[in-house]
Amino acid sequence: MRWPWSRNDDDQKKGGLADWIAPAKPNSSWSSALYEPRTLIPAIALTVSTVAGVRLYKTYLRRIPTVNHIKPNYYRRKGVFGQVTSVGDADNFRLFHTPGGRIAGWGILPWKKVPSKREDLVRQTLHIRIAGVDAPELAHWGREAQPYSKEAHEWLINLIHNRRVRAYIYRRDQYDRIVAQVFVRRWLFRKDVGLEMLKAGLATVYEAKTGAEFGTDEEKYRAAERKARENRVGMWSKPNFIQRMGGASSKTLESPREYKNRHTAADKADKAKKAG
Predict the structure, then answer these.
(1) Which of 94, 164, 177, 196 is catalytic?
(2) Are 159 and 151 in contact (CB under 8 A)?
(3) Which of 67, 137, 232, 273 is most buried (most C-beta within 10 Å)?
(4) Is 177 in the active site?
(5) Would you say residue 148 has pLDDT above 50?
(6) Where are the beta strands (DSSP E) in 51-90?
(7) Of the listed 94, 129, 196, 225, which one is catalytic?
């Protein structure tokens, strides 16, 4: 009787004891097949396409929910595309980033919808400050509203609210807003929102000592403001009466920058008076 693990005499004669103990070497043809073109080329193609897909997603399709998610290399190099969900004053708004737009399925696929409820938009939008312009101030913190602030606010709402815009981002300001040049499409034309505000006489060129951003269009902005002044368009049509700090009245238009400076000086004087 032969045991299952035993070998017959012919096998022992062929290989001997060493061959019986050590298994035969596997056929090396499978390893050489790894380097054949029909195997190697698909593997390289899969690797390259995977890396390219990840890079494409990170660069163009990854959604940016808040300013804290914007990487430093985005500033002055890239723009964000999305839908305006609300308008604050007449020079800032909230943007829900929709990378890739309709091509990427936004507004089409069920899981790529812009939220409509305010609670669903918390920590999901970018606060955008329109670069290069300063609009009349609405009433805030007990301060009076500037003339034409309501008209400017309504004008901006009609132009961009619930519409898709592209914002070319410049920097992050002290209020955690993104200063950006903003464009919106009207029919076949792309319009610079800040420039259109200046043409309508509903904003002035931004005149802060630091932090002004115009991209490459500063002279174009200033020319648009000058033309609106000359043609007495919008807020330039009826200069308002304001009460200056010294009590004397002046029949001149108070710009948004002058308005802010006046209230800042008044606040500082009030604090100094209370401290004294």
Answers:
(1) 177
(2) no
(3) 137
(4) yes
(5) yes
(6) 79-87
(7) 129
